[in-house]
Specification:
With 137 residues, the protein is an all-beta fold. 0% of the residues lie in helices and 43% in strands. It has a single domain, classed as Jelly Rolls, CATH 2.60.120.10. It contains no helices and 14 strands. Strand 1 and strand 2 form a beta hairpin. The N and C termini lie far apart (50 Å).
Amino acid sequence: MTSDKKFFYRWDNIQTENVGGDYSTSRGPVIKGEQIQISLVTKPRGTGANLHTHPNEQFNYVMQGTLRATVGGQEKMVGAGEVIYIPAGVEHATIATQDEDVIFLAIKDTRHGMVGKAVDASAGKYYDENFKPTDEE
Protein backbone atom coordinates (compact mmCIF):
# COMPACT_ATOMS: atom_id res chain seq x y z
CA MET A 1 0.00 0.00 0.00
CA THR A 2 1.43 3.38 -0.97
CA SER A 3 0.50 6.75 0.40
CA ASP A 4 1.00 10.29 -0.83
CA LYS A 5 1.07 11.61 2.76
CA LYS A 6 4.35 12.88 4.11
CA PHE A 7 5.13 11.69 7.64
CA PHE A 8 8.70 12.87 8.22
CA TYR A 9 10.14 16.38 7.92
CA ARG A 10 13.40 18.23 8.35
CA TRP A 11 13.09 21.93 9.24
CA ASP A 12 16.03 23.05 7.12
CA ASN A 13 14.43 21.48 4.02
CA ILE A 14 11.29 23.62 4.33
CA GLN A 15 11.06 27.13 2.88
CA THR A 16 11.00 29.89 5.51
CA GLU A 17 8.02 32.23 5.30
CA ASN A 18 6.49 35.24 7.01
CA VAL A 19 4.43 33.77 9.87
CA GLY A 20 3.69 37.11 11.54
CA GLY A 21 2.05 39.22 8.88
CA ASP A 22 2.48 42.99 8.91
CA TYR A 23 2.49 43.20 12.73
CA SER A 24 5.49 40.93 13.47
CA THR A 25 9.07 40.13 12.50
CA SER A 26 8.47 36.36 12.89
CA ARG A 27 9.67 34.04 10.14
CA GLY A 28 9.90 30.29 9.91
CA PRO A 29 9.05 27.10 8.07
CA VAL A 30 5.52 25.71 8.54
CA ILE A 31 4.29 22.12 8.62
CA LYS A 32 0.52 21.60 8.31
CA GLY A 33 -1.43 18.51 9.24
CA GLU A 34 -5.16 17.99 9.06
CA GLN A 35 -5.90 19.63 12.43
CA ILE A 36 -2.56 20.98 13.69
CA GLN A 37 0.06 23.28 12.17
CA ILE A 38 3.49 24.06 13.57
CA SER A 39 6.24 26.52 12.76
CA LEU A 40 9.84 26.81 13.93
CA VAL A 41 9.80 30.58 14.38
CA THR A 42 12.75 32.95 14.59
CA LYS A 43 12.22 36.43 15.98
CA PRO A 44 15.33 38.65 15.70
CA ARG A 45 16.56 40.22 18.93
CA GLY A 46 14.98 43.55 19.83
CA THR A 47 12.01 42.93 17.52
CA GLY A 48 8.64 41.30 17.69
CA ALA A 49 4.91 41.34 17.30
CA ASN A 50 2.56 44.11 18.30
CA LEU A 51 -0.80 43.21 19.83
CA HIS A 52 -2.81 40.89 17.59
CA THR A 53 -5.41 38.13 17.69
CA HIS A 54 -6.39 35.06 15.72
CA PRO A 55 -9.34 32.65 15.89
CA ASN A 56 -7.17 29.61 16.61
CA GLU A 57 -5.53 28.78 19.92
CA GLN A 58 -1.75 28.61 20.09
CA PHE A 59 1.12 27.28 22.16
CA ASN A 60 4.64 28.74 21.89
CA TYR A 61 7.50 26.60 23.25
CA VAL A 62 10.59 28.80 23.64
CA MET A 63 13.76 26.96 22.62
CA GLN A 64 16.29 29.83 22.63
CA GLY A 65 16.31 33.36 24.04
CA THR A 66 13.73 35.28 26.02
CA LEU A 67 10.38 36.69 24.94
CA ARG A 68 8.60 39.56 26.65
CA ALA A 69 5.11 38.14 26.28
CA THR A 70 1.75 39.78 26.89
CA VAL A 71 -1.35 37.56 26.82
CA GLY A 72 -4.77 38.88 27.83
CA GLY A 73 -3.16 41.86 29.58
CA GLN A 74 -0.72 39.73 31.62
CA GLU A 75 2.99 40.27 30.93
CA LYS A 76 5.85 37.85 31.66
CA MET A 77 9.43 37.23 30.57
CA VAL A 78 9.46 33.73 29.04
CA GLY A 79 12.73 31.89 28.51
CA ALA A 80 14.01 28.67 26.98
CA GLY A 81 12.10 25.63 28.21
CA GLU A 82 8.92 27.59 28.95
CA VAL A 83 5.58 27.48 27.14
CA ILE A 84 3.09 30.28 26.42
CA TYR A 85 -0.59 29.36 25.98
CA ILE A 86 -2.67 31.79 23.92
CA PRO A 87 -6.42 31.10 23.82
CA ALA A 88 -8.32 31.76 20.58
CA GLY A 89 -9.34 35.40 20.18
CA VAL A 90 -7.18 36.73 23.05
CA GLU A 91 -5.00 39.78 22.36
CA HIS A 92 -1.30 39.01 22.69
CA ALA A 93 2.18 40.22 21.73
CA THR A 94 5.68 38.71 21.91
CA ILE A 95 8.94 40.63 21.69
CA ALA A 96 12.46 39.18 21.66
CA THR A 97 14.72 40.80 24.24
CA GLN A 98 17.81 42.59 23.00
CA ASP A 99 20.11 39.80 24.24
CA GLU A 100 19.69 37.32 21.37
CA ASP A 101 17.38 36.07 18.64
CA VAL A 102 14.50 33.98 19.92
CA ILE A 103 13.58 30.60 18.45
CA PHE A 104 10.28 29.02 19.40
CA LEU A 105 7.98 26.29 18.22
CA ALA A 106 4.52 27.74 17.46
CA ILE A 107 1.69 25.21 17.49
CA LYS A 108 -1.81 26.15 16.31
CA ASP A 109 -4.94 24.38 15.24
CA THR A 110 -5.84 24.70 11.55
CA ARG A 111 -9.11 26.65 11.93
CA HIS A 112 -7.07 29.61 10.68
CA GLY A 113 -3.60 30.12 9.20
CA MET A 114 -0.47 31.11 11.09
CA VAL A 115 -0.97 34.87 10.62
CA GLY A 116 -3.53 36.71 12.72
CA LYS A 117 -4.90 40.25 12.66
CA ALA A 118 -3.24 43.29 14.25
CA VAL A 119 -5.19 45.12 16.94
CA ASP A 120 -3.82 48.40 15.51
CA ALA A 121 -3.08 47.86 11.82
CA SER A 122 -1.17 51.16 11.63
CA ALA A 123 1.39 50.04 14.26
CA GLY A 124 3.29 47.70 11.93
CA LYS A 125 6.05 45.43 13.22
CA TYR A 126 7.61 46.02 16.64
CA TYR A 127 11.23 47.26 16.88
CA ASP A 128 13.13 48.38 19.97
CA GLU A 129 14.67 51.82 19.39
CA ASN A 130 18.15 50.58 18.41
CA PHE A 131 16.82 47.69 16.31
CA LYS A 132 14.78 49.52 13.70
CA PRO A 133 15.73 48.59 10.12
CA THR A 134 17.57 51.14 8.02
CA ASP A 135 16.89 52.02 4.40
CA GLU A 136 19.86 49.87 3.37
CA GLU A 137 18.27 46.68 4.79
